[in-house]
């Protein structure tokens, strides 16, 4: 299959039309600048962004021919975290700058044996799961939590 040049822009949070295709990417794979990726249809596209970008689940890339390719979070190995005092547990995870998906009664983080051990020691229950990962974005701008440019 031929790679198409993607002059990709990312829409904020959603596609603007019916997407022509989808890319299923893990959290780490959604952080990129230049890479050839294979869409759900099998078509390959060359992503060539001006700078390294964190692509959001539900966002879209615009191909040179105007088609939209939707970005989807792919299932991946995660830790599901629950606890009687989930707010306290969330603070400890955030204090370690660990990406975290926050839901009403549980948290999800990437598999990390050191963080797992810490969570068990402070009273959390941890279970390995396999699902899409869409953590909270950074407080200092868009996308990833690292970086504190003002």
Summarize the structure.
The chain is mainly beta.
Polypeptide structure, described:
- With 150 residues, this protein is mainly beta.
- The protein folds into 2 domains: 4-73, Urease metallochaperone UreE, N-terminal domain (HSP40/DNAj peptide-binding domain, Sandwich); 76-132, UreE, C-terminal domain (Alpha-Beta Plaits), CATH 3.30.70.790.
- The protein is built from 2 helices and 10 strands, in the order βββββββαββαβ.
- It has helices at residues 86-95, 113-121; strands at residues 4-6, 21-25, 31-38, 44-54, 60-62, 68-73, 75-82, 101-102, 107-110, 125-132.
- The strands form 3 sheets. Strands 8-9-7-10 form a 4-stranded antiparallel beta sheet. Strands 1-4-3 form a 3-stranded mixed beta sheet, with no helix packed on it.
- Strand 3 (31-38) and strand 4 (44-54) form a beta hairpin.
- The radius of gyration is 17 Å and the shape is elongated.
Structural key phrases:
13% helix; mainly beta; 4-stranded antiparallel sheet; HSP40/DNAj peptide-binding domain; Alpha-Beta Plaits; 150 residues; disordered C terminus; 3-stranded mixed sheet
Topology:
Elements: E1 4-6, E2 21-25, E3 31-38, E4 44-54, E5 60-62, E6 68-73, E7 75-82, H1 86-95, E8 101-102, E9 107-110, H2 113-121, E10 125-132
Parallel strand pairs: 1-4, 2-6
Antiparallel strand pairs: 3-4, 5-6, 7-9, 7-10, 8-9
List low-confidence stretches. Answer: 146-150
Give the count of structural domains.
2
At the first level of CATH, what is the class of the largest domain?
Mainly Beta
Find the count of extended strands (DSSP E, 2+ residues).
Answer: 10
Q: What is the overall number of helices? A: 2
Share of helix, binned: 10-25%
- Mean pLDDT across every amino acid position: 85
> Remind me, CATH topology of the largest domain?
HSP40/DNAj peptide-binding domain
Largest sheet: 4 strands, antiparallel
Question: Looking at the structure, what is the overall shape?
Answer: elongated
* CATH architecture label of the largest domain: Sandwich
């Amino acid at each position: 299959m031929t790679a198409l040049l993607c002059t990709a822009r990312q829409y904020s949070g959603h596609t603007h039309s019916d997407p022509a295709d989808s890319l299923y990417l893990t959290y780490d794979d959604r952080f990129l600048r230049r890479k050839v990726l294979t869409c759900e249809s099998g078509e390959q596209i060359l992503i060539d962004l001006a700078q390294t970008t964190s692509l959001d689940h539900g966002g879209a890339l615009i191909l040179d021919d105007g088609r939209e390719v939707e970005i989807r979070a792919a299932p991946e190995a995660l830790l599901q975290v629950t606890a009687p005092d989930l707010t306290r547990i969330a603070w400890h995870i955030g204090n370690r700058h660990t990406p975290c998906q926050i839901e009403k009664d549980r948290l999800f983080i990437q598999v990390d044996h050191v963080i797992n051990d810490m969570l068990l020691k402070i009273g959390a229950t941890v279970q390995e799961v396999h699902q899409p990962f869409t953590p909270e974005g950074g407080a200092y701008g868009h996308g990833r939590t690292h970086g504190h440019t003002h």
